[in-house]
């Protein structure tokens, strides 16, 4: 992988952290640890993590509340949170998803399952980030293009020199006010009604005689 993924492991039991960390350490991940919800939030506030493994049952602030607090911050809305839990009741699982979790890892942790879920969510997160970056670049390009088009249109409309565009068949498709005046018309719209540009070039311009 080009850059190390950063994973935060949160559990109030040090042995549980050790078990998970020992499984992940050979995958090249960069890891940080927290043993309570407040410390976890502080870690997230000062570091950009790519995935968070979060225990549910912790004293003080439980995993559900930690996850809710994480999701309130714009920068953490898409970071995958996987709950570590021995609770398999439907209500607990639903509560976790409602709090903002993306998946569950059941304790005792199965090594193959943990690695598969972590890898899957890291890849999905990377893909989402890349898509967001692409969309941002496209939006910037669109803005720049609109600015260029506006500047060109402003120059075209306000130019002292006459300018026009026509099709190969001779139909004028665009002209600026200066060119309309040169041809003796009051506005570009009058010229656009002419079927063939030759009618303009070879007929006597409609200039009032004095």
From TrEMBL:
Gene3D superfamilies: 3.40.50.2300, PAS domain (3.30.450.20). This is Two component system response regulator/histidine kinase. It holds the Pfam family PAS_8. The modification 4-aspartylphosphate is found at residue 55. One of its GO terms (biological process) is regulation of DNA-templated transcription. Residues 6-122 form the Response regulatory domain. Keywords: DNA-binding, Kinase, Phosphoprotein, Transcription, Transcription regulation, Transferase, Two-component regulatory system. InterPro entries: CheY-like_superfamily, PAS, PAS-like_dom_sf, Sig_transdc_resp-reg_receiver, WalR-like. One of its GO terms (cellular component) is cytosol. One of its GO terms (molecular function) is phosphorelay response regulator activity. Residues 148-189 form the PAS domain. SMART domains: REC (SM00448). CDD domains: REC_PA4781-like. Coiled coil: none annotated.
């Amino acid at each position: 992988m080009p850059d190390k993924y950063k994973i935060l492991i949160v559990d109030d039991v040090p042995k549980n952290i050790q078990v998970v960390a020992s499984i992940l350490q050979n995958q090249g991940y960069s890891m940080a640890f927290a043993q309570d919800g407040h410390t976890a939030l502080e870690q997230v506030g000062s570091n950009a993590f790519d995935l968070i493994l979060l225990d549910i049952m912790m004293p003080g602030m439980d995993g559900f509340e930690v996850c809710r607090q994480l999701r309130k911050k714009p920068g953490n809305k898409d970071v995958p949170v996987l709950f570590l839990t021995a609770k398999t009741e439907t209500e607990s699982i639903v509560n976790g998803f409602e709090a903002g979790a993306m998946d569950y890892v059941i304790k005792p942790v199965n090594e193959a399952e943990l690695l598969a879920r972590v890898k899957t969510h890291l890849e999905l997160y990377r893909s989402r980030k890349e898509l967001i970056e692409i969309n941002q670049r496209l939006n910037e390009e669109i803005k720049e293009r609109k600015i260029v088009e506006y500047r060109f249109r402003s120059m075209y409309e306000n130019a002292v020199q006459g300018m026009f565009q026509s099709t190969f068949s001779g139909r004028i498709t665009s002209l600026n006010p200066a060119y309309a005046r040169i041809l003796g018309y009051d506005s570009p719209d009058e010229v656009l009604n002419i079927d063939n540009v030759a009618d303009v070039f070879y007929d006597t311009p409609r200039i009032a005689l004095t």
